[in-house]
DNA sequence: GTCTATAACTCGATAGAC
DNA sequence: GTCTATCGAGTTATAGAC
């Protein structure tokens, strides 16, 4: 007896599988057929829900954005008012803790961020916009007395991304949050 | 009039072009044909020099290893004796300065490191071995009084990789070496 | 809504002429 | 040593049956 799925559940299942498979092989490296197999359907069936391979990728990014937007917005305080170092460290720890619970997403973004360096990659524009916004938000957060927020934001953001990739490479063999906290403690004066 | 090339020059030209194209599209994303076009030859002609796509990738990594081994070995001092903080910072700056002069290589390794997280990627074993060795060397270098070298090596190495990727993302729009020095100054106690 | 069938193309790799 | 020609398999995407 085959499982029936309504439209929305089916789309969700495909997008979840797409996160994993694109994170593993990259946009160029995965095939619609391979993804469809993981969803126990044919490639034609999958393309009924998402018109093309590119549209599927954009749908993945779109949905993640909507979901993450709420969580990140709740973590990052608004306004340019300086805040205490302890507050900043706490916000950063919360972001990393959240990522530690979703390694497939960390991997997806690590993969796409490198692939999308190419100007003709379907996610190029997305990452240009997204990363500029991320730097702006971090600069706002890191607006500490006597610091250059832009430079510090660049260092903190890249150290966070780098450590998360290292964590995937070592197969999550160390405590990401604890190690990050040690890094942040030193990086932020 | 067509340019004549001997075997070694031709192989070198192909490998140089391969560094660029694999860095842009990844191992899965580039085609032998595309690479051959950049070298003004056919795919069959290219495969005469490197038997297969996988062999070509391994040849790229092999040659880079041999060339880099000399440079890195000259920079990294041997032995486990503790050394001064200033010495350590100087070695790290020299490594980053070297990378800043070869953005295509930084991009190649950034791409392959993520792709090779997959156990069936042709460079998986290479990166497992290479990164373990890098961590060991850095831990040796960072054997500073009162520190846990392994933990510190992980943080320093990942921060360096992360900043280099950020530098590519911002199209080399900031001074990589100066920014790294500021990071290292804070990260290393 | 998912299938089969197929179009139109590109892939890596090989064989053999020159 | 590089070419043309070609193979078989793989790709995205579409058309139409059910």
UniProtKB/TrEMBL annotation, chains A, B:
It comes from the Bacteria. Keywords: DNA-binding, Transcription, Transcription regulation. Residues 8-68 form the HTH tetR-type domain. It comes from Novosphingobium clariflavum. This is TetR/AcrR family transcriptional regulator. PANTHER family: HTH-TYPE TRANSCRIPTIONAL REGULATOR BETI, HTH-TYPE TRANSCRIPTIONAL REGULATOR RUTR. Residues 31-50 bind DNA. PROSITE patterns: HTH_TETR_2. Gene3D superfamilies: Tetracycline Repressor, domain 2.
